[in-house]
Amino acid sequence: CIEGHEKFPYKLAEAIERDHDARKKLLAARAKYVDHFRSKGRCFLQCPHCLSGGIEIDLFMMFLVHGAMPHPVANPDQSPTDPFMAYLGFELDFWPLLRTHLFTKKAVAHTLVKTMEKVRDTLEILGANTPPTRDYRIPPAKSAQVSLPSRTADVFEERQVHLLLRGPVLPTHDLNAVLRWGDYSLGPTNENAFWNYTNPGFRTLLRLAMITSHPDGKTEFGPEILETWPVSDILFLDTLYAYLHSMSTTNPERGAVRCMGCGKEFLAAL
Length: 270
Known about the structure:
Elements: H1 10-18, H2 20-38, E1 42-46, E2 54-57, H3 59-66, H4 91-99, H5 105-126, E3 144-147, H6 149-152, E4 162-165, H7 171-181, H8 200-211, E5 212-213, H9 223-226, H10 231-246, E6 256-258, E7 265-267
Antiparallel strand pairs: 1-2, 1-3, 3-4, 4-5, 6-7
């Protein structure tokens, strides 16, 4: 809310866009704000040994365990970065198909399902989405239950949400997500006009929708729900995914945590 307006005034936005110094300061403040609240998220990793214990970690602990910085929220010019999950190595194979056909569920079903095996074979040849190298003498966590930043920071009391984060995202996840939520027949003036697979943000929402659920295992979070969440929540899930699914852990001194129940070690990974 600025100057009593519920929505950001367009004239003010246009003035900031023309003033490069003001724009840079605003973007820098945004990046600092988003990064601060992203760090408030927590994740409980279930122990694969005793199943009754585990350990709660945050992004700072992930940094210490894996020795890698979190995915940045801003580019050097302070503009927002694309989410990590937007580029997993196989989306380029789908873009030509999606760009050359009418974006409707019927057309997507006819086009993509028919070519699924061909695309899958191509991805295997390219080595897309190659799993990280791991020392499986130390098992990965059994599951990951997430407490979102907005819950932990008590920002949105009406959204006291816990969820399970699974994965990894596979090409079949993208295909199923597009078939389920990719109704691209919407006109350009529709409020969901950005619901396009080629949009990095929406592609991330699609992928998160396929690998997240309520702990009851029944309640799902579709893109229509995820898009209403604070950006810090989405970026926390995105960063957590990067740590849990993309980090190589061949060094026994890296990547392992200890269960607070049985005391045995397991990987901070899925």
